Amino acid sequence: MANLFGTEGNDSILGTTSPDKIYGYPSGGFPDAESGDDFLRGGAGNDDLYGGGGNDTLMGDAGGDELYGHDGDDLLIGGDGNDYYEGGAGADTIVIGDDANDTFLGGTGDDLIRLADHTSYQKFILDEVASIETLDLAGFVLSGTASSDTWDLSGVTVIDTHGKAIDMGAGNDRFTGHAGADSVVGGEGHDTFLGGGGDDVFWGGNGANQYDGGAGDDTFWISHNDTEAYQGGEGTDTVALEANATRYRMILDAATGIEVLDLNGHALTGTNYADIFDFSGLSRVIYSGPAVDLGIGHDHFTGHEGADRVLGASGDDTLLGAGGDDYLDGGSGDDSLEGGAGADTVLGAEGNDLISGGAGNDMLSGQDGEDVIAGGDGADNLAGGAGADSLLGEAGNDLIGGGEGNDTLSGGAGDDTVGGGADNDLLFGDAGNDKLSAGTGNDTLDGGLGDDMLSGGFGEDSLAGGDGADNIGGGTGRDRLDGGEGDDSLGGGEGDDTLSGGSGDDFLAGGGRHDVIDGGAGDDLINGGQGDDLLTGGAGADLFIFTAFNDGEIDRILDFEDGTDLIRLAGIQGAPGSGLEGKLDALDLTNTTLEGVSGVSISYHGQTIFVAGVTASDLTLEDFVFV
């Protein structure tokens, strides 16, 4: 071992192959301002170089060297080996090149570390204690090792990467960034990134990585199949897919501080297990490609306030859309799907699904299975599909179709259009001016409040208008029509129908075949139509209308009130010039008894009208209206 001393001047001292101590000042002296600008080179071995008070150049060469710059703007070049650098006072430059694990202490002044070649470090600490202000990669790659590396650049003020990212390499690495913008690749392994300030960009690579961006608008690039933990910190932070990725857990709620998820056209999929995806903290998701596919399993998805696109696939999934115009497809299984606010499209597919549209104009489809669907606020489109479904439109002007199966369909508030489809359905208009159509099957329709339009369709249907001025048509089959309160219009259509006007001034027409008609309270207009009809006016001044006479038909008026009710006849021909008296004379009025009830038989062209409870002498011109 040699101790080599310089002078007060500008010295050039070279070490030996042994471990040397080289001083840029005289033996017994001090590294003060009188020292010159020295060049000290250690050579092979573990050397200690002391620069003195000038602007010195210290070159360690091979070995684990210790370089002390002391005063002045020094240049410290470590060379090979695990070196120790201490710049001292002044603006010092430390040049590193070969792979090593060095220790740095910049001292006072603005100190800089510069790469001389591509190099890698397992431990690279430039924290506040190290007092290094600038890191300059000089166009080279600074990388980690295959082991678990620890890098801390938190004390650095400026990092100049010359457009290149720092590569941590394989292993479970930990990186702590500086106050500016860091650009770091994690590589293989489970890495931890701490960004500090600035707009940082971290590429996680494979592994279950942890990201903390700190202040700034940070971007975390992810890929492959591991699960990460995120903490965005201040600023607008982004998680971006670098390639197709599979996750069983992806939490981006409000606590993570992540604002944007950018899929970059790649596929984000779940696993075959119970996956959890939570995007509730995001302000934006950029899909630009396929929807998130949760895959097989009982998965749980929570969306963000924007538009989400999610496929549940098989399994009993829970998909919550939150805000935005969402697309949620539960796939097969018994799914729970909620669109939330926005104009959502929600599909149940196979299985017994629970679907809620939330606020907005939604399109909701249960498809196969026994589904429960609620539209929420807005003008919604609800389709039950196959199975015994329960559909509720709720607030808004909704369009509801039950499809196959014995469905229960409720319009809720608003002017709704409800169609029963196949099988035996229950249709409720609820509040509003609704349109209800029974479809095939034996259906039950209830218009509820409002001026409703009810159509029976095929099958033996039961139609009730409820409150309001309703328009009710029975369609084919033996239908039961009830106008309820209000001035209603009822038409039995084909089949042996039963019509009840309820309260109000109603119009009731039986249509074809043999009908039973009761006008109820109010001044009603009653037309039995074709067939042998039973007609009851109920309370009020009723008008019984006969527009055609068919040979062999017998209609019955069961409660004609003389002096109050009227019979209107069309097409009656009296003797020429006889006037109304002649029309009355053309009618064959005969007192008779029909099935134990006494009354008057009015016959004309082979058709009979039996009026119960009166006699032929009771019926005068005042009881008829001829047209």
TrEMBL record:
Q: Region (Disordered): which ranges? A: 324-343, 358-377, 397-417, 447-505
Q: Where is the composition biased (Gly residues)?
A: 399-417, 465-476
Which GO cellular component terms are attached?
extracellular region
Q: What keywords appear on the UniProt entry?
A: Secreted
Decide whether keyword Secreted is in the record.
Answer: yes
Q: Where in the cell is it found?
A: Secreted
Molecular functions (GO terms): calcium ion binding
Q: Which PANTHER family match?
A: S-LAYER PROTEIN (PTHR38340:SF1)
Which named protein is this? Calcium-binding protein
Which species is the source of this protein? Rhodobacter xanthinilyticus
